[in-house]
Amino acid sequence: MTYEFRSYPDREMLAIDLADQLASELRAALSHQDRAALAVPGGSSPGPVFDALCAVSLDWDRVDVLLTDERWVPETSERSNTRLLRQRLLVNRAAAARYLPLYAEAPAPEGALDALAEAIAPALPLSVLLLGMGADLHTASIFPGADRLDEALAADAPILLPMRAPGAPEPRITLGAPVLDGAMKKHVLIFGAEKRAALEAAKGRPAHEAPINAVLTDAVVHWAE
Ligand SMILES: O=C1O[C@H](COP(=O)(O)O)[C@@H](O)[C@H](O)[C@H]1O
Protein backbone atom coordinates (compact mmCIF):
# COMPACT_ATOMS: atom_id res chain seq x y z
CA MET A 1 0.00 0.00 0.00
CA THR A 2 1.62 3.24 -1.13
CA TYR A 3 0.21 6.69 -0.74
CA GLU A 4 1.49 10.20 -1.17
CA PHE A 5 1.59 12.45 1.89
CA ARG A 6 1.24 16.20 1.28
CA SER A 7 1.85 18.60 4.14
CA TYR A 8 0.55 22.20 3.95
CA PRO A 9 1.62 25.30 5.90
CA ASP A 10 -1.94 25.82 7.17
CA ARG A 11 -5.53 24.63 6.81
CA GLU A 12 -6.59 27.53 4.61
CA MET A 13 -3.90 26.82 2.03
CA LEU A 14 -4.75 23.15 2.15
CA ALA A 15 -8.44 23.86 1.51
CA ILE A 16 -7.75 26.10 -1.50
CA ASP A 17 -5.17 23.79 -3.03
CA LEU A 18 -7.18 20.62 -2.46
CA ALA A 19 -10.36 22.16 -3.89
CA ASP A 20 -8.34 23.11 -6.95
CA GLN A 21 -7.07 19.55 -7.37
CA LEU A 22 -10.55 18.06 -6.97
CA ALA A 23 -11.92 20.50 -9.53
CA SER A 24 -9.16 19.64 -12.03
CA GLU A 25 -9.84 15.93 -11.63
CA LEU A 26 -13.57 16.44 -12.11
CA ARG A 27 -12.92 18.47 -15.26
CA ALA A 28 -10.60 15.75 -16.57
CA ALA A 29 -13.25 13.08 -15.91
CA LEU A 30 -15.92 15.19 -17.64
CA SER A 31 -13.67 15.61 -20.66
CA HIS A 32 -14.07 11.92 -21.53
CA GLN A 33 -17.37 10.90 -19.92
CA ASP A 34 -20.90 12.32 -19.74
CA ARG A 35 -21.07 12.49 -15.97
CA ALA A 36 -18.62 12.37 -13.06
CA ALA A 37 -19.26 11.21 -9.50
CA LEU A 38 -17.75 13.00 -6.52
CA ALA A 39 -17.95 11.41 -3.05
CA VAL A 40 -17.11 13.51 0.00
CA PRO A 41 -16.99 13.02 3.75
CA GLY A 42 -18.94 14.73 6.49
CA GLY A 43 -17.64 15.53 9.96
CA SER A 44 -15.74 18.60 11.08
CA SER A 45 -12.84 18.72 8.60
CA PRO A 46 -14.10 19.27 5.03
CA GLY A 47 -16.14 22.50 5.43
CA PRO A 48 -13.39 24.87 4.20
CA VAL A 49 -12.67 22.62 1.20
CA PHE A 50 -16.38 22.72 0.33
CA ASP A 51 -16.39 26.52 0.64
CA ALA A 52 -13.65 26.74 -2.00
CA LEU A 53 -14.90 23.93 -4.22
CA CYS A 54 -18.50 25.16 -4.52
CA ALA A 55 -17.27 28.34 -6.23
CA VAL A 56 -15.17 26.74 -8.96
CA SER A 57 -16.22 26.84 -12.55
CA LEU A 58 -16.96 23.43 -14.04
CA ASP A 59 -19.95 21.64 -15.55
CA TRP A 60 -21.59 20.99 -12.21
CA ASP A 61 -24.82 19.91 -13.89
CA ARG A 62 -22.90 16.83 -15.06
CA VAL A 63 -21.61 15.99 -11.58
CA ASP A 64 -23.23 13.55 -9.13
CA VAL A 65 -22.36 14.40 -5.53
CA LEU A 66 -22.72 11.93 -2.70
CA LEU A 67 -21.48 11.44 0.82
CA THR A 68 -19.05 8.68 1.76
CA ASP A 69 -21.24 7.98 4.79
CA GLU A 70 -24.05 9.41 6.87
CA ARG A 71 -25.11 9.45 10.48
CA TRP A 72 -28.70 8.24 10.71
CA VAL A 73 -30.14 11.52 11.95
CA PRO A 74 -32.53 13.93 10.22
CA GLU A 75 -31.17 16.93 8.35
CA THR A 76 -32.28 19.19 11.20
CA SER A 77 -29.59 17.63 13.40
CA GLU A 78 -26.24 19.38 13.81
CA ARG A 79 -24.68 15.94 13.32
CA SER A 80 -26.18 15.44 9.86
CA ASN A 81 -23.51 15.19 7.18
CA THR A 82 -26.21 15.98 4.59
CA ARG A 83 -26.87 19.26 6.36
CA LEU A 84 -23.17 20.19 6.09
CA LEU A 85 -23.18 19.31 2.41
CA ARG A 86 -26.28 21.36 1.66
CA GLN A 87 -24.91 24.37 3.54
CA ARG A 88 -21.30 24.34 2.34
CA LEU A 89 -20.96 22.35 -0.92
CA LEU A 90 -24.30 22.26 -2.76
CA VAL A 91 -24.39 26.05 -3.00
CA ASN A 92 -23.00 28.70 -5.35
CA ARG A 93 -21.97 27.12 -8.70
CA ALA A 94 -22.10 23.60 -7.24
CA ALA A 95 -25.84 24.00 -6.60
CA ALA A 96 -26.27 22.72 -10.17
CA ALA A 97 -24.86 19.28 -9.23
CA ARG A 98 -27.15 16.28 -8.77
CA TYR A 99 -27.20 15.14 -5.16
CA LEU A 100 -27.52 11.42 -4.45
CA PRO A 101 -28.70 11.12 -0.84
CA LEU A 102 -27.48 8.67 1.79
CA TYR A 103 -30.39 9.38 4.10
CA ALA A 104 -34.15 8.96 3.90
CA GLU A 105 -36.81 9.29 6.54
CA ALA A 106 -36.89 5.86 8.13
CA PRO A 107 -36.32 4.82 11.73
CA ALA A 108 -33.14 2.91 10.81
CA PRO A 109 -30.81 2.67 7.78
CA GLU A 110 -32.05 -0.84 6.97
CA GLY A 111 -35.45 0.64 6.01
CA ALA A 112 -34.00 2.75 3.19
CA LEU A 113 -30.83 0.92 2.23
CA ASP A 114 -31.96 -0.80 -0.98
CA ALA A 115 -33.58 2.30 -2.48
CA LEU A 116 -30.56 4.48 -1.66
CA ALA A 117 -28.11 1.92 -3.10
CA GLU A 118 -30.20 1.55 -6.27
CA ALA A 119 -29.99 5.30 -6.90
CA ILE A 120 -26.22 5.34 -6.39
CA ALA A 121 -25.31 2.29 -8.49
CA PRO A 122 -25.60 3.95 -11.95
CA ALA A 123 -23.22 6.73 -10.87
CA LEU A 124 -20.37 4.31 -10.06
CA PRO A 125 -17.42 3.99 -10.24
CA LEU A 126 -16.56 7.14 -8.33
CA SER A 127 -14.53 9.58 -10.40
CA VAL A 128 -13.15 11.53 -7.46
CA LEU A 129 -13.20 10.58 -3.80
CA LEU A 130 -12.42 12.70 -0.77
CA LEU A 131 -12.30 10.82 2.54
CA GLY A 132 -11.95 11.91 6.12
CA MET A 133 -10.39 9.85 8.88
CA GLY A 134 -10.88 9.66 12.63
CA ALA A 135 -8.02 9.32 15.11
CA ASP A 136 -9.32 5.77 15.66
CA LEU A 137 -8.48 5.14 11.96
CA HIS A 138 -12.09 4.86 10.81
CA THR A 139 -12.86 6.23 7.38
CA ALA A 140 -16.33 6.89 5.98
CA SER A 141 -18.30 4.96 8.67
CA ILE A 142 -16.07 1.90 8.56
CA PHE A 143 -15.02 1.80 12.20
CA PRO A 144 -12.69 -0.61 13.99
CA GLY A 145 -14.93 -2.86 16.12
CA ALA A 146 -18.09 -2.07 14.08
CA ASP A 147 -20.79 -4.71 13.76
CA ARG A 148 -20.44 -5.14 9.98
CA LEU A 149 -16.77 -4.34 9.63
CA ASP A 150 -15.79 -7.61 7.91
CA GLU A 151 -18.69 -7.26 5.47
CA ALA A 152 -17.71 -3.68 4.60
CA LEU A 153 -14.09 -4.67 3.98
CA ALA A 154 -14.83 -7.81 1.94
CA ALA A 155 -14.00 -7.82 -1.77
CA ASP A 156 -17.69 -8.42 -2.52
CA ALA A 157 -19.01 -5.82 -0.06
CA PRO A 158 -22.30 -4.18 -1.03
CA ILE A 159 -22.33 -0.60 -2.28
CA LEU A 160 -23.95 0.56 0.94
CA LEU A 161 -24.09 -0.94 4.41
CA PRO A 162 -25.68 0.00 7.69
CA MET A 163 -23.08 0.24 10.45
CA ARG A 164 -23.13 0.44 14.21
CA ALA A 165 -19.97 0.92 16.22
CA PRO A 166 -18.96 1.60 19.82
CA GLY A 167 -17.26 4.84 18.68
CA ALA A 168 -20.34 6.13 16.84
CA PRO A 169 -23.21 7.61 18.87
CA GLU A 170 -25.89 6.87 16.23
CA PRO A 171 -26.44 4.22 13.53
CA ARG A 172 -24.59 4.93 10.32
CA ILE A 173 -24.79 4.15 6.65
CA THR A 174 -21.58 3.86 4.66
CA LEU A 175 -20.22 3.09 1.24
CA GLY A 176 -18.40 -0.26 1.30
CA ALA A 177 -14.60 -0.38 1.04
CA PRO A 178 -14.47 -1.68 -2.59
CA VAL A 179 -16.58 1.23 -3.86
CA LEU A 180 -14.33 3.68 -2.03
CA ASP A 181 -11.11 1.97 -3.03
CA GLY A 182 -12.28 1.69 -6.65
CA ALA A 183 -12.47 5.46 -7.11
CA MET A 184 -10.39 6.78 -10.01
CA LYS A 185 -8.82 9.48 -7.82
CA LYS A 186 -8.58 9.20 -4.04
CA HIS A 187 -7.80 11.86 -1.47
CA VAL A 188 -7.77 11.76 2.32
CA LEU A 189 -8.07 14.93 4.41
CA ILE A 190 -6.65 15.00 7.92
CA PHE A 191 -5.87 17.80 10.34
CA GLY A 192 -3.73 17.83 13.48
CA ALA A 193 -0.82 15.98 15.04
CA GLU A 194 -2.96 13.24 16.57
CA LYS A 195 -4.36 12.04 13.23
CA ARG A 196 -0.98 12.30 11.54
CA ALA A 197 0.61 10.12 14.23
CA ALA A 198 -2.31 7.66 14.06
CA LEU A 199 -1.92 7.31 10.29
CA GLU A 200 1.82 6.78 10.63
CA ALA A 201 1.27 4.14 13.32
CA ALA A 202 -1.30 2.38 11.10
CA LYS A 203 1.33 1.38 8.57
CA GLY A 204 1.35 -2.39 8.07
CA ARG A 205 -1.70 -3.04 10.26
CA PRO A 206 -4.62 -5.09 8.92
CA ALA A 207 -7.67 -3.19 7.70
CA HIS A 208 -9.95 -4.58 10.42
CA GLU A 209 -7.71 -2.78 12.94
CA ALA A 210 -7.00 0.22 10.70
CA PRO A 211 -9.89 0.58 8.18
CA ILE A 212 -8.17 3.53 6.48
CA ASN A 213 -5.63 1.03 5.13
CA ALA A 214 -8.34 -0.51 2.93
CA VAL A 215 -8.47 2.63 0.75
CA LEU A 216 -4.98 4.12 0.85
CA THR A 217 -3.35 2.52 -2.17
CA ASP A 218 -2.52 5.27 -4.69
CA ALA A 219 -4.30 7.86 -2.53
CA VAL A 220 -3.04 11.32 -1.69
CA VAL A 221 -3.20 12.26 2.00
CA HIS A 222 -3.53 16.00 2.63
CA TRP A 223 -2.44 17.21 6.06
CA ALA A 224 -2.12 20.47 7.94
CA GLU A 225 -1.66 21.17 11.62
O1 LIG B 1 -18.16 10.65 11.66
C1 LIG B 1 -17.44 10.94 10.73
O2 LIG B 1 -16.12 11.09 10.94
C2 LIG B 1 -15.15 11.16 9.91
C3 LIG B 1 -14.03 12.05 10.42
O3 LIG B 1 -14.62 13.28 10.81
P1 LIG B 1 -13.81 14.51 11.43
O4 LIG B 1 -14.85 15.31 12.18
O5 LIG B 1 -12.77 13.95 12.35
O6 LIG B 1 -13.23 15.26 10.29
C4 LIG B 1 -15.76 11.66 8.60
O7 LIG B 1 -14.84 11.49 7.56
C5 LIG B 1 -17.07 10.93 8.31
O8 LIG B 1 -17.60 11.31 7.06
C6 LIG B 1 -18.04 11.26 9.41
O9 LIG B 1 -19.30 10.65 9.22
UniProtKB/TrEMBL annotation:
It holds the Pfam family Glucosamine_iso. One of its GO terms (molecular function) is 6-phosphogluconolactonase activity. Pathway: Carbohydrate degradation; pentose phosphate pathway; D-ribulose 5-phosphate from D-glucose 6-phosphate (oxidative stage): step 2/3. One of its GO terms (biological process) is carbohydrate metabolic process. InterPro entries: 6-phosphogluconolactonase_DevB, 6PGL, Glc/Gal-6P_isomerase, NagB/RpiA_transferase-like. Residues 9-223 form the Glucosamine/galactosamine-6-phosphate isomerase domain. It comes from the Bacteria. Its EC number is 3.1.1.31. The keyword Hydrolase applies. CDD domains: 6PGL (cd01400). Keywords: Hydrolase. It catalyses: 6-phospho-D-glucono-1,5-lactone + H2O = 6-phospho-D-gluconate + H(+). Belongs to the glucosamine/galactosamine-6-phosphate isomerase family. 6-phosphogluconolactonase subfamily. Hydrolysis of 6-phosphogluconolactone to 6-phosphogluconate. PANTHER family: 6-PHOSPHOGLUCONOLACTONASE. This is 6-phosphogluconolactonase. It comes from Salipiger marinus.
